[in-house]
Amino acid sequence: MQTQTGTTQPGTRKFVSYASSWNTSIYDLTTANIPNYITDINLAFARPDTAYVKGSYAFDQAVAGFEFVEGKTGSTGQKKFTAQQAQDLRGNIAALKSRGTGVWVSVGGWDYSQGSQWSSFSAPRVVDLALDLGATGVDIDWESSTSNCNKLTADQFSCTKDGEIGGIINSLYNEIKARGASLKISIAGWSTGAYYVKGTPFEEGKVQWGSPFGGTMYSLVKNHGGKIDMINLMSYDAGDYYDPREGYESYRAIYNGPINMGMEIAPEGSGGAILELLAPAGTVYDADMLTGQNNVASPYYNVETMVKYMKNKARPSDGFMMWQLWKQRVHQPAPAGAATENSAGQYVCNNLPLAGSCAQTIPTLPKL
Questions:
Q1: Does domain 15-351 correspond to CATH entry 3.30.110.10?
Q2: 305, 285 in Cβ contact below 8 A?
Q3: Locate the Chitinase II/V-like catalytic domain: which residues (predicted)?
């Protein structure tokens, strides 16, 4: 298990937050609405098969994939960005970057990963979109539910869609390098995406059971990790038995770059787990891991335990990711007693710690 430690200084770790575009306006993406301890914002989601043309500034849903109210596909038809709206979106991104908050184009997500969109992935068009927006980088959120893995040893381990995701990262990396662009690449790492490799501490039966898509990111990260600037670990949506600490260790065993531990504000999309803020009394932050005992992991599924683990066991460059900035605004409110966007973010800011003002808050905004 990874035990490398180091002195943490504010500003050396990331706090990434996905910002969904549905029920949201481009005018919500302002420095006043986004606390300055959030180091990076991932705009969710762009289409993998986008037909975006450089210089068109067609940031609407039909072309780019974003679902901002200014460009949403709805019952009244497809709204198109006006020239002013396109300029204003780019201006808001520039203002966030000028403040020190990176802005990434996140491509994919669950809905854009269940059809044939990824088979038509166009790296040139995605790069055009990111450059026209003035983005910091491209986040690949490939969530295929049809990739099956053989669960063999590392030298024989493979999944049926290794070629697809490997080709996506390779083509994106090569396109960025060929243009001399300064764009970075991150990936959303599936919760159990590095599990179920026989002969490792993370083989089936040694880790807490979680998502059925175990191992789907293993070959990508192991073989192409040098092309990825950071991993945003989706350590959620995997039920009460999933342990985010084990998820982190499985990726750390095969990846040398920064890993951001993910937190989802409840209610979660699947699995029913509820992220709480504080640990139960007497909780030992690094206990009950990799034991082969498939017990409920709820005592360790809280922000306090995750922060203690990452602060003491992770690398100084590792941080956190949150799904998502507008969670209660665009979905249901968090259950009573659960962590919220603000309580989770401020706890990470104060205790990891992060640079910026931990007193700043995400305002309550209405659905649009």
A1: no
A2: yes
A3: 13-357
